[in-house]
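So, does this match?
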Amino acid sequence: MNQYEAPLADFSFLLFDVMQAHQTYSGLAGYEEFSPDLAEAVLSEMAKFASGVLLPANAEGDQQGCRYDAATHTVTAPQAYQQPFQQFVANGWPSLTAPTEYGGQGLPKILGVAFDEMCAATNTSLSMYFGLTHGAIVALEQHASEALKSQYLEKLIAGQWTGTMCLTEPQCGTDLGLIKTRAEPQPDQHNTYRINGAKIWITGGEHDLAENIIHLVLAKLPDAPAGTKGISLFLVPKWLTNGERNGIYCSGLEHKMGINGSATCFMNLENAEGYLIGEPHQGLRYMFSMMNSARLMVGVQGLGLGHAAYQTALGFARERIQGRSVAGIQEPDKPADTILVHPDVRRMLLTQKALVEGGRALAMWVGLQLDISERSKDDTAREQASDLVELLTPVVKAHLTDTGYHICDQAVQTLGGSGYTRDWGIEQLLRDCRISRIYEGTNGIQALDFVGRKLPMGGGRAVKALLTELSGMLTSITEPQVQQPLQKALAQLQDALGWLTQHGLQDREQAAAAATPLLKLFGIAVQGFLLARNAQVAEDLMANGDERPVLRSKSKTRDVYLREILPEMQALTQTIKAGKDHLMAFSAEEF
């Protein structure tokens, strides 16, 4: 079994020392009572639940997997999940950040970010049944009629029902304009439609954990315009309110590399009864409310899985003895030194540590901006925070899952042959993490969204706000050896943006070719600035007598990042400026 200890001290440090969240939240509507005592009590309970309930079911659930019965079109979730799922509901975790008017606890979204990390670290597959339910709650809260909200939100928030997101079809994934699912209005029933079609890759599409499953389904009306402008969004319950089984069924399960405890379903809709959400032909816009929530969650999945892998690798390295240090015998009372003495092992582990702490700083910062964007009483602050959330959502999703997978891979490498076996659990973390770079929009699609939509947003208003934030962080740094690489990083961002403006606006292929390295460039840079800010805060606190252990290694972790990871920006900038020609020069036959 892999090891996991929730990073409670780091959460507290980020919330109340670095971001001064208690001061910010005192000015956010509905969050005025948020305090360190409240947050730390909630975080502590989260940690107990994740380590004590979710983690013990993780490996067993992976090995048991889900079972499909073709005769009844039903799916049985892993037996190991039954009790933890019910405890998840009984403890009220699904309602953590949900609106109080429908039975939620109404706590800040930033606590949801922390909980998502702990859940992913301890049991990604089980937590996914609730993760997409949260996305469904967001979409319904923002876009559904009062009648649908009153009928469905309370039980979704309570965890009695779960939700899904039904987008993809056999012939279309990213290009949703090609969907064939159709919705026919029922003239004798207000706002009721009969829906026919097929959906694939549906997480939690069928299972036996909850009383009902509420599907949010993209479909086209008879008079729909062509392409994505003709997509509408419908609520399709598994069980109708009169107790009848609705015409939406699972026709099979995917057989996957990882997340084996999560039911990934083929779904058929045969005259299924559905209810229009919002206005006709606005479905894609509504679904993005759900997708943006899911994308942030998936980014944090990568972070949580990476942290679990790092902890396990570190525990192994502290115990495994092999060879002697090249600097001479370090542990003469043992037949060999622990592998932690070897520079290459240290590089692997410290790179993992730096990426985890940088990723957490980014995720929590975006969580803070999300709360400000929704609850600030200041219009300007709300707009700027919203811009930052929009801009950084694809960065969180893509960069944290890319680095999370890299961390898991390096953790396997740290253990050597032991990492390749089930004994230590890291191979499951690696398998589970791989999908995070694919679902909720592949990371390549995130990069195209970042370059094509987010950077130009508001005439570049969002990216200017981000660069201003980074420049502000730089002014608080007092050490030249830290200032200089960050100044260079800021210049590289501006250089890459200048190239994109000059070439990408005239040639969309140039922008597309630059998209993935540009998103990575931003991810590396932002995490570097956040780690530098963390270190500066820690140094200031220690100078005033604060002796908390969490503060001691912040500057060293920053230095690892500045020397091992930040230099990648130089090569990425060169790749961006190399343009498209070497990529587009090949004919199809020459591949």
Remarks:
- The CA atoms of residues 232 and 281 lie 4 Å apart.
- The two ends are 43 Å apart (CA to CA).
- The domain at 161-282 is CATH 2.40.110.20 (Butyryl-CoA Dehydrogenase, subunit A; domain 2).
